[in-house]
Batch of 3 targets.
Target 1
Amino acid sequence: MTTIYRAKRILTMNPARPQATHVAVRDGRILGAGSLDELKGWGDYTLDERFAGRILMPGLVEGHSHTMEGTFWRYAYVGYFDRTDPDGRVWPGVGSIDAVVERLKEAGAKLADAEAPIAGWSLDPIYFGGRRCTRHDLDRVSTTRAIGVLHASAHILNVNSRALELAGLLRRGVDHPGVPLGEDGLPTGELKGPEAMMPAGPHVGFDRDILACDELGLRYFARLCVRKGVTTAADLASLLPPDAVDMMQRVTGEADFPVRVVSLRRMLNLAPKDLIARAKELAEASSDRLRLGIVKIVVDGSIQGFSARLSWPGYFNGAPNGLWYVTPEELRAALALALEHGVQIHTHTNGDEATELVLDCMEEALARHPARDHRFTIQHGQLATAAQFRRMKALGMCVNLFPNHHFYWGDQHYSTTVGPERAERMNACATALANGVPLAIHSDAPVTPLGPLFTAWCAVNRLTASGRTLGSEERIGVGDALRTITLGAAYTLKLDQEIGSIECGKRADFAVLEDDPAEIGPGRLKDVRVWGTVQGGRVFPAPPAP
Amino acid sequence: MTGPLPVTVVGGYLGAGKTTLVNHLLRNAQGLRIAILVNDFGALAIDADLIEARSEDLISIAGGCICCSFGSDLMGALMKLAQRDPAPDHVLIETSGVAMPDVVARSAALIPAYAIDSVVVLADAETVRARAADRYMGDTITRQLDAADLVVLNRTDLVAAAELEALRRWMAREAPRARLIEAVRAEVPAEAMFGYSHPAVGSGTLASGAIRPAEDAAARYESASFLPDRPMDVEALARALARPECGLVRAKGVLCDADGLLKTLHLAGARFEVRPFPHAGAAATGIACIGLRGRFNRAAIEDALARAAAAAR
Ligand SMILES: [Zn+2]
């Protein structure tokens, strides 16, 4: 059974045939893109006109997100910027601590149980003029309920007095770098880092492993993907225990599940040899809509949290250098074993010193186990230098940069974390492309909102929230940006033979758009309206907001 | 209600001898029920002959010790461990090569069921200086050493005497707070690691001469018990005993404070803690001290005791 879709315009990402008006689909795959006359040759068909006034692109590929974005939407959104939930409702950003308190009160009013906790997420006090949120602020919401609000970074939790009390932390003598104390000698309510957050997390409704998604979260995540034109999303990363794999297998396998999820296994709690063995086992368990077998190694922390490892001269504000999360020995061993066994590795590095370490270890690993087309990928690589991009190219590595950072924290990077010059070269997309490094760009949702077209807008314009253009030389063109959020990301996941362009033989994955991203103008790329998606030949309209 | 469970964190870079140390301690636990938390069993191999039973994340060891793997969730594992019946006498957390052991210890102490006993960092005498000069890991190694209460300088048999002397000076610069223990094959007596040789001390009933170094350690360590019969300023005593001239690695005791109440004193290198005695009723008072042979200074300890008693008057 063949369906031919007519569209206003199809941007194929196939350089031999960049545009078309029709695409023929059979068994969830593409027979071809071209004119109706050309496609008629495939035999009997049904002509589907529903996209006649719309633009088709290859289904967008999010190369670095976390499915927990879906999980977070059951909590109250208290971010500074407007954000769309999985149902399409736009939650206005909150601009002050008072507004945060109001939003949490509204959430509490909906709860029947007077002691039920309230959880919020995406707090960003950086926009509240330097004023930190304290337990006293949240006590205004309730003193009987435990309340916890996770920061946008997901690395800090603000709680109220009741939550501190339940966690056993409302006492004098607490001595921990992640638990600041007030003048009264009691914790202020800010809990920084997973260890400090842990004793309070369960009491405010955050599960033990905040980073993992559950079944409901996965379904919410999928609905967001449809709204953003995403048909394949990488989930970086969880521990993928057998029961989580079973759940993901079952949910993604449902007939109406709209996304292909590529879930990476994080190198944590396994020695390199066990890790690589587990990755091979996971690869065997892959299905069409759940791809497993890639490994993620976290090498350092984050720049805004001052836990990224920076090369000399370090942080602009003089903060001490960040933390390593893996030893060079383990990194080297894992890379070499992975090359030997054909397992792909993605490494999280933010600071340039961490990127340098990965490049050094990769060079040694490749000397021991020469491998072609390994596509090991630097994730984030935000501070990578031009010289490092040249080394990535020489070593056959890919990079997945994080241009959304410019918009959300670019002003802080300029003034505080890395200073003007390095802020301008952060996420150097143009340098990556000029050096021929295969490039993807990402949102790291829920750290910033899922939405490849927004990410493309960030890479094309490099505007900060205050309107500064952060490094105009590193802007890339719309064409490059669109290619990067489709084929580019697919390449880093070794899926470019299946997805990323609209051409004969590939999966019938399309982003269905109301506006033409190639025509709307670089400054409005983020405003392109998404109608929905087609995934594996199945049509998923994004339902209108309630 | 007994006091919080003491936690010792053992840090140090790869190859410093953490696995050897853990096996040594398990073999010489002397009746202490030690719970050892490790990142993963793959990275820390328990000697097969010590293992009584094992499941995916728990190994039972002859003599009542256990070993648990905590994976990515140390805090969860600690909370679970606190519920165990019977509770262990002492918890030992083995950290990864890049972790900051003092931060791990302070994290454990966020849970009310635990109190920090000490932060112990192992260093390989042969390689520690090269590691500390490493382009990537150097500052991590020195930060770890700087955070230690006790530094176990391991494999001292593999370096020449002159080199060892230079290493001691270097260590005094890098880890000025820490007491240095030198060891071969990570053979640190349980008394030095945990501060007592018998569980009765942990529960507060101090027998005279409670710290008695095991035979093999006698050559390296010296110890003594003191049984003062007067009240004393326990906080001041602890501060004095923590000074390098006393040469103490460990001290533990129950003493009568200036206010007439019983207090426990606990010292590991430069770290000390004074807490209210957790049991009702009277108890024998006394303090047991252990230090390295040659540095253990009985006169300085006696002086500290006399001054603390004078301060209470
Ligand atoms: Zn991420």
Note: DSSP finds ten helices and 14 strands in chain B.
Target 2
Amino acid sequence: MPEMTYLEAIRQALWQEMKRDERVFLLGEDIGVYGGAFGLTHGMLDEFGPERVRETPISEATIVATAVGASLLGMRPVAEIMFMDFVLLALDQIANQAAKMRFMFGGRTSVPIVVRMPGGSGTGAASQHSQSLESILMHFPGLKVVNPSTPYDAKGLMLASIRDPNPVCFVEHKVLYKTKGEVPEDDYMIPIGVAEVKRAGRDITVVANNIMVMKTLHIAERLAQDGIEVEVIDPRTLLPLDTETIINSVTKTGRLLVVHEACQTGGWAGEVIASVVGSPAFDYLDTPVRRLGGRDIPIPYNRGLEKFAIPQDADIEAEIRMMVAGKV
Amino acid sequence: MAKPKVKEINTQADFDERVRRLELSDETLIGLYRTMCTVRHFEYTADRLYAAGKVHGTMHLSAGQEAVAAGTRLALQPDDYLINHHRGHGHFIAKGADVNLMMAEFLGKDTGFNHGRGGSMHIADFQSNNLGANGIVGGGIPQAVGVGLALQMQRRKEICVCIFGDGASNEGVFHEALNMASLWKLPILYICENNKYGMSMDVERVVAKLPIAQRAEAYGIPWSTVDGNAVVEVYEAIKEAADHVRAGNGPYFVEALTYRYFGHSKSDRNLYRSKEEIEDWKQNRDPIMRFTKHLLQAEVLNEEQAREVDAQAEQVILKAVEFAEASPEPDLSTLMDYIYA
Ligand SMILES: Cc1ncc(C[n+]2csc(CCOP(=O)(O)OP(=O)(O)O)c2C)c(N)n1
Ligand SMILES: [Mg+2]
């Protein structure tokens, strides 16, 4: 299987789907010659032309609205929001419009759009270009929120997202763009709403998304040498959330830690924890459930400060050791 | 760019000349009259149902603005797409939406266009390319860009008509959308129904430079203003605009000056305008009264025939109420339906 980066895997999905389905088109700021702020759509303008790689003015609300309107006439638009932070400018179109249209209109239409957006810190982009806002997007029934952590998942989830008849927010992570992994050339889909056990283990369940999956897997290897077996679950989709996989895992391990980069207060860890403690898995818990989210501060610019605004390897490791030792 | 000034109330000679020039048959004129009567009966009936405690939610009635809906519809093709706004009953009816299903939706019934999920503010009829009203002021304006873009990419001949109020022209997306529509030469006809107020705010207090339509100039979009209470003039202005759009020349912007009779919504106590002002519009500029006078003088109809058309329109609405009232409520077991496709 060929190796490629997370960024290339998403590009390949877009490329292949545009070849396969002429209703699919891209729109966004600087996605043509420039290739998008991160170069994700590089080369696509040459291949598909300006009509299907449509460069827009800096008008996020209308970019999403254009996708919405075009989808009502049978198109399959994939809109790019340059940085996830800017999705706040388009939130009316996502939350009040796209997410609700099928419902408000009594099921007589659907809004098959994908809105791509890279979130996350780690690039020195400071407070307005580094947020992880996925928890906000989970609050709008009718929307789906997809959040892949590996190149393989990214491609399969992108293909599934474009073919999904509902509006999908496809949340990428800037730091993951350069990570590599095996990605099949062929067409495959990863089902939306299905979590994956990225590593099996008996001692503790750690639920993590995007870069925190990578970090946790890394730590899990180290802890295994000390005889601590960590089960790592990547929800892959945050809305709808696959609570069943998580509950089953906690029933087995008796311990739950949720790790995310998003600010801890109001973060999606709360949702996972509420689902678990409200389920029969509660009776199997050996320790209190815990969460490790980003600090409740805007992401700082300075390298050192930026790093410590979000959970680090050492934090995750210490948390796991403490929980497994029953010292919470 | 054509920029007709809004004229003083048109004379019979004006009217006759226009009807001749535009080759409007008696049948067509009577059709306009029928549409306007139907809209008015719908709106007054809706108000009555509300007063009788039969309406759960709010409503935004367009009585007084019927000529914009009727004149616009006549200038369009049946397949043209409509993006509507909250005060949209008139445009839906003019576009041929089944009033039974509208009334049922208004009463929240399962037989309504939206199975009772949307109510007055969200009526849509996808079968007639009526893509729905919007509860967010200006929310549909940028969506029309997407509809126009899809029409262009699919090389189709239909156009998208986008209706909104004076107040909506102050939303940011209005400006984003006009810019993009013009940039990409999209087949969109923007119609701003300036009924003088956005809720309580007089346009003069919230729009820095009037007319609103001149904002289109900044985006390179041709525009015009028209007396929105003169149905044949509306038809003429919209026809000219629609022809321009349909010929592939990009968007066009028409501002129709009109007036709403009822309060903004059910919470309105009319504290921001005088009774005299409302009466002046009702007595001297009412779109149906003016049109009726012209039709009588031109002998398109006699008084008895006019009354007959009006009575038929009323019957249609009363039947719709019967249908709606006899319709079932949505079953509570369906609460979670229609969220995901
Ligand atoms: C974004 C938003 N802001 C405010 C409102 C409340 N609101 C509903 S209609 C309206 C006035 C709209 O005025 P206009 O666009 O002129 O339309 P009209 O009601 O006069 O037909 C207001 C303020 C809303 N629904 N949405
Ligand atoms: Mg108004």
Note: Residues 196-324 of chain A form a domain with the Rossmann fold fold (CATH 3.40.50.920).
Target 3
Amino acid sequence: MREINEKSLSIVKEKALIMRREVIKMLGEAGSGHTGGSLSPADIVSCLYFWEMNIDAERPDWENRDRFVLSKGHAAPLLYAALAEKGFFPREWLSTLRKIGSPLQGHPDMRKLPGVEASTGSLGQGISWAVGMALAGKIDKRDYRVYVLLGDGEIQEGMVWEAVMAAAHYKLDNLMAFVDYNGLQIDGKIKEVMSPEPIADKFRAFGWEVLQIDGHDYQQIIASLNIGREVKGRPTVAVARTVKGKGCSFIENQVDWHGRAPNKEEVEKALAELQAEQDAAEIKR
Amino acid sequence: METQATRDAYGKALVELGRLHEDIVVLDADLSKSTKTAEFARAFPERFFNAGIAEQNMMGMAAGLAAAGKKVFASSFAVFATGRAFEQVRNSIAYGNLNVKICATHSGITVGEDGGSHQSVEDIALMRSIPNMCVVVPADGPSVRKALFSLYAREGPAYLRLGRPSVPVIYGEDSDFEVGKGIELKNGRDASLIACGIMVNEALRAAEVLAAEGIDVSVIDMHTIKPIDKGLIVKKARETGAILCLEEHTVLGGLGSAVCEVVCEYCPVPVRRIGLNDVFGQSGSPDELLQHYGLTVDHIVQNIRSLVKNR
Ligand SMILES: Cc1ncc(C[n+]2csc(CCOP(=O)(O)OP(=O)(O)O)c2C)c(N)n1
Ligand SMILES: [Mg+2]
């Protein structure tokens, strides 16, 4: 069990803020893209990239690396921010998001950008991919772990449950999923559009180890990662309660902010709010 | 020039049609704001069903509704409607010749910044290959309205290919749009441009440039890819002796292929195809992408020049 110390915790927090700022800047510059869903899982992704995962930007193809699959591929800006911050490519590339010729495609392209493990964007497919990667780890007797991030609307796709069944069937304890449980999809609240509830019970019935956490509480995220490592013989999922658009008050919980980018004014406003949060955190320290 | 996105025309026409016919049911898969079925949902909430992010189930439900007597219009982005749910479309919908009209938006590369994963460049080929399926690719808003009304009245499954961006309006209210009949927009004798969707307007613009050079081309809006208008293709092949096909789609299996099949069999003449050359799309603005992949007036003009010269 790896306990997180104060220093590591503050790094994870700081990186999450940096990534949220980059997400806002990138989307502002691109003029289109998915803001709400790129912000909600920033704390989870920060814990993965800046605490949990065993990866090396110098060797993106290293065979024993842990792998992260962004099944909800529309949150690409967040993934790109994490990879840039990790040093997989120069930070300047971030401003080319969604532009012609850029390695930073609207949805992640594994053949264009180092560090991208899977080409995603068509919802539902990333988790099957992650199951395949975890299975390969078992075949080769490697001890890498595979992490996958799903949207709570995304799990309406039937293939997600086919993958969930397969992961349990093959006892993939090297696989851990996070559900970004922000309650919203494009056409409204998930409960009103097409309820996938009860989510935790469904995973449990399929044979997974199920954790229900606050996806913005670093201690809870880290604890779930620790449990995921310990559990043997079955995969683990953390159903993580989040706020879509987390960190920018006017974006939070607004269904219309799913697929729109901030304009100049909104970028300023969002960055100011994130800066204030950072300042407050520093004062506390 | 007046412009309108074909998906906007679809949203409006669907409400109009819904008012006339009580047997219409509309389905969507969490994209109703983008596909514009949200307008129908607002007008007739009791006849609209959101399948959530579950395109395969949506197509299966559409088949069941149709088998129980409903006329179903099912929408999503083209890549998901025809790709993700292909086999449900084939076996549940088309095999039984059911009344499901698949009206997919965000087709082709003009989806733009979302990138290659979201740009369907093979949907015409996929849908055209299924028995019983009718395939219509309208060039503008007024055509969409007419296509929708015709498809409602036509027995069996259909695929209506719609786009994301605003495009020029080519036709007035009184155009004679008939499913299965190509429209001769310009009659010239040196070569024929046969186009569908957004490429029809590019063909018209290219024809003007060519006319200034003394090259007189025909322009055909081949909005129905299946059943294709064999008679018109053979007539144009005979009259002009050279054909250039234009589509926002891979050159493998789409309009160009359909025209070649007819020309080879009934009246062989040189045919060239402009479209995507067996590649995926990528992120970029729609205009940049059209340039990048050669779906431009310049490229059309160059091709016609060399076609005419080499004859
Ligand atoms: C197969 C598929 N269908 C539809 C879409 C279009 N789409 C993109 S994001 C989205 C909503 C996703 O909702 P959710 O999974 O809850 O994501 P989040 O709220 O985390 O952004 C939809 C329908 C898609 N990308 N893939
Ligand atoms: Mg959600």
Note: Residues A 36-37, 40, 72, 74, 121-124, 151-154, 180, 182, 184-186, 244, 258; B 30-31, 53, 80, 84 surround thiamine diphosphate (ligand 1) (CB under 6 Å).
